[in-house]
C-alpha cells in the first residue's frame, strides 16, 4: 500500500515554514508523514530528509512546495530527483509547478518532457539565487561608493524577504505578518525594508535595464 509524504525545508531556523505546511495540508498529507528540516546547510546532511528517504517505498507519493526544496543548486536538485524517482521508485508532485508531476505521462514522451522541465527549472532556481546574491552585493558596493557607512556587518536578508516585501507593498499582508514570515522583529524588518528601497531596488532596476533585450 502506497503512502503520501510531504517535505519542508527552510534554510535557517528563523524562517517561517507556514506556507509550505499549509500547502501540504491542503493536499491531505498526514501530519505524521510531513518531514521538516529547519537548519542551514550547504549539502544534504539534513536529518529529517534522510529519515524520509529511508521510509520511502516504490509507489509512494511525495509532495514538495517548490523544486528548490530538493537542493541548493542545479546539481543537487538533479541528483535528488534521480534518487527519488529512479532509485526509490516514488512519484513526486511539485505544487508550484504542475508540469512536474511524475504521476502524469508515464510513457517515454511524458518522462522526456518532465526531465526537460526539471532541468530548466532547477537551473533557473540556482541562477536566481546567484543573481539575488550578486545584486545584493552590487547594491551594497554602490551604497558604499555613495559614502553610506556601514556598522557591523549586516546579516543577509532572509531568502523569502523579497517575496514578503512585495506581498506587504501590494497590500496582500500587513507589515507585521511580513516581518513574522521573515523571522524578523518588526522594527528590524522596517529598517531592512527602508535600506532595500533606497539602495538595493534602485540598483536592481538599473541592472535590469542594462540586461534587457531591445
List the domain count as a whole number: 2
Classified in CATH, the superfamily of the largest domain is Resolvase, N-terminal catalytic domain
By secondary-structure content and strand pairing, the structural class works out as alpha/beta
- Which strands sit side by side, in order, in the main sheet? 2-1-3-4
- Helical content, roughly? 40-55%
Rg on CA atoms, Å: 19 Å
Number of discrete helical segments: 7
The CATH class assignment of the largest domain is Alpha Beta
Sum up the overall morphology in one term: elongated
Stated plainly, the CATH topology of the largest domain is called Rossmann fold
Chain-averaged pLDDT:
76
Descriptive notes:
- With 214 residues, this protein is α/β, with parallel strands linked by helices.
- The chain folds into two domains: 4-111, Rossmann fold (3-Layer(aba) Sandwich), CATH 3.40.50.1390; 125-211.
- The protein has seven helices and four strands; from the N terminus they run E-H-E-H-E-H-E-H-H-H-H.
- It has helices at 18-26, 47-55, 74-87, 108-145, 161-169, 175-181, 186-211, and strands at 4-10, 34-38, 61-64, 91-94.
- It has a four-stranded parallel beta sheet, with helices on both faces.
- Strand 3 (61-64), helix 3 (74-87) and strand 4 form a beta-alpha-beta unit.
- Helix 4 crosses helix 7 and helix 6 crosses helix 7.
- The longest helix is centred in the middle third of the chain and has 38 residues, at 108-145.
Fold topology:
Layout (H helix, E strand, L loop, with lengths): L3 E7 L7 H9 L7 E5 L8 H9 L5 E4 L9 H14 L3 E4 L13 H38 L15 H9 L5 H7 L4 H26 L3
Parallel strand pairs: 1-2, 1-3, 3-4
Amino acid at each position: 500500500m502506497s503512502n503520501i509524504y510531504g517535505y519542508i525545508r527552510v534554510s535557517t531556523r528563523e524562517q517561517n515554514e507556514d506556507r509550505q505546511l499549509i500547502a501540504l495540508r491542503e493536499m491531505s498529507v498526514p501530519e505524521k508523514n510531513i518531514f521538516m528540516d529547519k537548519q542551514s546547510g550547504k549539502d544534504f546532511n539534513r536529518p529529517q530528509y534522510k529519515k524520509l528517504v529511508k521510509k520511502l517505498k516504490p509507489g509512494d507519493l511525495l509532495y514538495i512546495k517548490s523544486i528548490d526544496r530538493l537542493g541548493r543548486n542545479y546539481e543537487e536538485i538533479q541528483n535528488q530527483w534521480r534518487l527519488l524517482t529512479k532509485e526509490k521508485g516514488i512519484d513526486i508532485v511539485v505544487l508550484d509547478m504542475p508540469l512536474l508531476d511524475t504521476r502524469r505521462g508515464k510513457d517515454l514522451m511524458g518522462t522526456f518532457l518532465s526531465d526537460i522541465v526539471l532541468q530548466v527549472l532547477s537551473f533557473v532556481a540556482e541562477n536566481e539565487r546567484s543573481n539575488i546574491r550578486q545584486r545584493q552585493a552590487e547594491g551594497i558596493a554602490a551604497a558604499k561608493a555613495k559614502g553610506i557607512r556601514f556598522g557591523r556587518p549586516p546579516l543577509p536578508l532572509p531568502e523569502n524577504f523579497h517575496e514578503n516585501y512585495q506581498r506587504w507593498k501590494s497590500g496582500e499582508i500587513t507589515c507585521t505578518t511580513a516581518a513574522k514570515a521573515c523571522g524578523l522583529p518588526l522594527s528590524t524588518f522596517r529598517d531592512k525594508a527602508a535600506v532595500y528601497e533606497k539602495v538595493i531596488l534602485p540598483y536592481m532596476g538599473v541592472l535590469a535595464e542594462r540586461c534587457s533585450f531591445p
